[in-house]
């Protein structure tokens, strides 16, 4: 078995991300053919399209004037990119709880290598399911996921059951699956390439596989080598991340809204212990403690304080967040989420954690 065949890659793709955020935040848009970007006067370009308007053939990057011709009753809204970026960061923080190997492609999709992962699960499918459940619970949005032993297959798989789907392409099934796939469905084969392949009698993966590597290079240039490999399920690209972790945190969304202060104090003490465990596992400590509170109406507030020294002990973290809690309306307002984060970490210039030097008392 080759090296790439034993990797476990997940591709997560948020479903109609911008449009879904708007429909989540504004109930009057739900079930409507919603276009984010452009204008009802036909100016601009579609940034995102809800599934309701996609039925009419409207899609992202389409001129707004064309979208109106296809769906005259479409509802147009202005994009709120700051909101989308904030939610995207929240989703990526979920990814990093499972693996450090996360490669974001855009605000709404990313590759994750979970061959080795933080929760010790051997099944990428179970991890993908957990991530999708977390995203739904914590953001109210749906994501589709694909699982494969390389990036190409994971990307293909994530498109198979959209929206809100999970698909897996097993290593032993990959070649047969790709043989039956229409050539236009291959990631990286655009309309122009599809037309050229059709002119050459290539309509499916099976047709493509009959061509030699040299012949594909002759017809398509260097990218012909790529086509030769992907139709055989070969993709050695690694999941690359340039992320330097800037914080470590834990949070939880409750199934019922909470207003019992004693219960909340006990929960935060427990959560502080989990954060401390993570800090100690990574031989890290931080100077800034942040408490996150989301109320029942989804309003989210944070309160932070910084020290002039590093902390990583559960008691210190718990004592700090309970003090920060007094700066919120918790107790007077019901709470649906609580979180604790330590930031301003003891990182080296290369982003590695420095070994803590702990003085011993004589």
UniProtKB/TrEMBL annotation:
<feature type="domain" description="UmuC">
    <location>
        <begin position="9"/>
        <end position="190"/>
    </location>
</feature>
<dbReference type="InterPro" id="IPR036775">
    <property type="entry name" value="DNA_pol_Y-fam_lit_finger_sf"/>
</dbReference>
<feature type="site" description="Substrate discrimination">
    <location>
        <position position="18"/>
    </location>
</feature>
<dbReference type="InterPro" id="IPR043502">
    <property type="entry name" value="DNA/RNA_pol_sf"/>
</dbReference>
<keyword id="KW-0548">Nucleotidyltransferase</keyword>
<comment type="similarity">
    <text>Belongs to the DNA polymerase type-Y family.</text>
</comment>
<dbReference type="GO" id="GO:0006261">
    <property type="term" value="P:DNA-templated DNA replication"/>
</dbReference>
<keyword id="KW-0515">Mutator protein</keyword>
<keyword id="KW-0808">Transferase</keyword>
<comment type="subunit">
    <text>Monomer.</text>
</comment>
<keyword id="KW-0239">DNA-directed DNA polymerase</keyword>
<protein>
    <recommendedName>
        <fullName>DNA polymerase IV</fullName>
        <ecNumber>2.7.7.7</ecNumber>
    </recommendedName>
</protein>
<keyword id="KW-0238">DNA-binding</keyword>
<keyword id="KW-0234">DNA repair</keyword>
<dbReference type="GO" id="GO:0009432">
    <property type="term" value="P:SOS response"/>
</dbReference>
<comment type="function">
    <text>Poorly processive, error-prone DNA polymerase involved in untargeted mutagenesis. Copies undamaged DNA at stalled replication forks, which arise in vivo from mismatched or misaligned primer ends. These misaligned primers can be extended by PolIV. Exhibits no 3'-5' exonuclease (proofreading) activity. May be involved in translesional synthesis, in conjunction with the beta clamp from PolIII.</text>
</comment>
<dbReference type="InterPro" id="IPR017961">
    <property type="entry name" value="DNA_pol_Y-fam_little_finger"/>
</dbReference>
<keyword id="KW-0235">DNA replication</keyword>
<dbReference type="GO" id="GO:0006281">
    <property type="term" value="P:DNA repair"/>
</dbReference>
<dbReference type="GO" id="GO:0003684">
    <property type="term" value="F:damaged DNA binding"/>
</dbReference>
<dbReference type="Pfam" id="PF21999">
    <property type="entry name" value="IMS_HHH_1"/>
</dbReference>
<dbReference type="InterPro" id="IPR043128">
    <property type="entry name" value="Rev_trsase/Diguanyl_cyclase"/>
</dbReference>
<feature type="active site">
    <location>
        <position position="109"/>
    </location>
</feature>
<keyword id="KW-0479">Metal-binding</keyword>
<feature type="binding site">
    <location>
        <position position="13"/>
    </location>
    <ligand>
        <name>Mg(2+)</name>
    </ligand>
</feature>
<dbReference type="GO" id="GO:0000287">
    <property type="term" value="F:magnesium ion binding"/>
</dbReference>
<dbReference type="GO" id="GO:0005829">
    <property type="term" value="C:cytosol"/>
</dbReference>
<dbReference type="Pfam" id="PF11799">
    <property type="entry name" value="IMS_C"/>
</dbReference>
<keyword id="KW-0460">Magnesium</keyword>
<dbReference type="GO" id="GO:0042276">
    <property type="term" value="P:error-prone translesion synthesis"/>
</dbReference>
<dbReference type="InterPro" id="IPR022880">
    <property type="entry name" value="DNApol_IV"/>
</dbReference>
<keyword id="KW-0227">DNA damage</keyword>
<dbReference type="GO" id="GO:0003887">
    <property type="term" value="F:DNA-directed DNA polymerase activity"/>
</dbReference>
<dbReference type="InterPro" id="IPR053848">
    <property type="entry name" value="IMS_HHH_1"/>
</dbReference>
<feature type="binding site">
    <location>
        <position position="108"/>
    </location>
    <ligand>
        <name>Mg(2+)</name>
    </ligand>
</feature>
<dbReference type="Pfam" id="PF00817">
    <property type="entry name" value="IMS"/>
</dbReference>
<dbReference type="InterPro" id="IPR050116">
    <property type="entry name" value="DNA_polymerase-Y"/>
</dbReference>
<keyword id="KW-0963">Cytoplasm</keyword>
<dbReference type="InterPro" id="IPR001126">
    <property type="entry name" value="UmuC"/>
</dbReference>
